[in-house]
Write a structure and sequence with these properties.
Blueprint (H helix, E strand, L loop, with lengths): L19 E8 L5 E7 L5 E3 L13 H11 L5 H8 L3 H12 L2 H9 L3 E12 L14 E7 L4 E8 L3 H12 L5 E8 L4 H10 L1 E2 L10 E2 L4 E6 L15 E2 L20 H13 L14 H17 L10 H5 L8 H5 L6
Parallel strand pairs: 4-7, 7-10
Antiparallel strand pairs: 1-2, 2-3, 4-5, 5-6, 8-9, 10-11
Helix pairs in contact: 1-2, 2-3, 3-8, 5-6
Length: about 350
C-alpha cells in the first residue's frame, strides 16, 4: 500500500515505481492541458489521471463536481440529469467512481493516533425496491459516528441481521489499536456491543484456577441504554444503563449516565433523510436497489467527512478529528489516486 502522501504523486501502473518524469503536455477537449508521464525504469507511458476517478472520463471535472454537489443536497438522479443535461446512468457512474475513494480517504483515520474517542451507533430505514416487511428488507442502514467531531466511521445498508452489524463494527475495531480510550454508546441495540466483543475480546489471565474469562481490551467501554417498559416482564428488571459484555477490570468506568445516548447520530440521520433522495419518496420508490443505496451512502460519507463543514461545529469532521489540516474540495478527491 502506498504511503498517505503519495495519493497525489505519480506512480507507474506497470512496475509501481515512483521514478516518473513528465514526457509532454497534451490538450483535452474539456479539461485543458494534462501531463503525459513516462516511467524511467520500464518506459511505460500514462496520463496524470491514471488511477483517479477521472481516468478515461471526457466530461469536465467541474460538471462532475457539480453533479455530486447537487446530489448531496437531496436531488434525485433524473432531476440532476435534467439540470445538467446528462443521462442518469452517467451521473450514477460518476457517483460510483467518487464512492470508490471512501477506502482511500478512510486510511487517514485508520492510520492516525488518538487519545480518546466516543462512538455512537444507530440505525435508519428506507424502502428498497418493492415494499416488504421491515424484517425482510435490505433498506436498514447502520451508522457509526464519532461524537465530538461528528466523523462518520462507517455506514452500511442491508438486512438488519448479524452480517450488517459485523460489517460496521469491523471499522470500529480498526480504531482500537489507534486509541487509548474508546467508548461505544447505543440507544438500545445490544448487537453493536456483542459484535465488537466477538471481534476483539481478549483472554484475562487472573492466576486463579479455571478457564480465564474473555473481556474487552483495556480502555474499551460499551454502554447500552435499555429502552421500553419492562415492568410487565417476568424475572429481574434490567438496569437502564449497562454493558452488554464483560469489560477489562482496569478500564475506567467513570461515565455519566446522562451521556449514554446516540442523540448526535439521530440528528445526523434526520439530516441524511433530507439530503439523500433514497430516503425520501421523490420517485416511484425510495431506493431502487441495495447497491444503489450503498453507493449514495458512500458518497454521503466522503462529502460529510472531508468536504462539508458540519452545521453544529462549523468545521469539517476530518479537520475537527485532527486527521486532516484543511478540508478537501470535490475536485481534489476526483483527482486523488486510489489506494493500491
Amino acid at each position: 500500500m502506498a504511503p498517505m502522501d503519495t495519493h497525489y504523486s505519480q506512480i507507474c501502473p506497470k512496475c509501481k515505481s515512483f521514478d516518473v518524469i513528465t514526457l509532454k503536455l497534451y490538450v483535452t477537449v474539456h479539461n485543458g492541458e494534462r501531463k503525459l508521464h513516462r516511467c524511467s525504469e520500464c518506459e511505460t507511458n500514462f496520463s496524470e489521471t491514471y488511477g483517479t476517478p477521472m481516468e478515461n472520463l471526457k466530461s469536465p471535472i467541474s460538471k462532475v463536481a457539480s453533479a455530486l454537489k447537487i446530489r448531496s443536497e437531496g436531488m434525485g438522479l433524473r432531476a440532476t440529469g435534467r439540470v445538467l443535461g446528462s443521462d442518469k446512468n452517467t451521473i450514477s457512474g460518476w457517483e460510483k467512481r467518487f464512492a470508490d475513494q471512501k477506502e482511500t480517504l478512510m486510511l487517514y483515520a485508520f492510520c492516525h493516533q488518538f487519545v480518546s474517542l466516543t462512538f455512537e451507533g444507530d440505525e435508519l430505514y428506507t424502502v428498497v425496491g418493492k415494499r416488504t416487511a421491515p424484517s425482510d428488507s435490505v433498506g436498514w442502514t447502520a451508522v457509526i459516528m464519532e461524537r465530538g467531531s461528528r466523523f462518520l466511521v462507517d455506514q452500511q445498508c442491508g438486512k438488519k441481521d448479524a452480517d450488517l452489524f459485523d460489517s460496521v463494527m469491523r471499522s470500529v475495531s480498526q480504531f482500537i489499536a489507534q486509541t487509548q480510550d474508546l467508548t461505544f454508546l447505543s440507544d438500545g441495540e445490544r448487537r453493536y456491543g456483542n459484535t465488537l466483543f466477538s471481534l476483539c475480546a481478549e483472554v484475562l489471565k487472573t492466576g486463579t484456577c479455571g478457564r480465564p474469562p474473555k473481556v474487552l481490551p483495556q480502555g474499551i467501554r460499551v454502554r447500552v441504554k435499555n429502552k421500553g417498559d419492562q415492568n410487565h416482564k417476568r424475572g429481574p428488571k434490567r438496569p437502564k444503563y449497562q454493558s452488554p459484555q464483560r469489560e477489562h477490570p482496569d478500564t475506567d468506568q467513570n461515565l455519566p449516565e446522562s451521556e449514554i445516548n446516540a442523540n448526535r447520530t439521530e440528528a445526523q440521520n434526520a439530516a441524511k433523510r433530507r439530503r439523500n433522495s433514497a430516503f425520501r419518496r421523490r420517485t416511484n420508490t425510495y431506493a431502487k436497489s441495495e447497491e444503489g443505496l450503498q453507493r449514495t451512502l458512500d458518497v454521503d460519507l466522503v462529502i460529510h467527512n472531508f468536504v462539508r463543514p458540519h452545521w453544529t461545529t462549523g468545521i469539517v469532521p476530518a479537520v475537527k478529528l485532527g486527521i486532516k489540516k484543511a478540508p478537501l474540495r470535490l475536485e481534489d478527491i476526483l483527482t486523488m489516486k486510489k489506494a493500491a
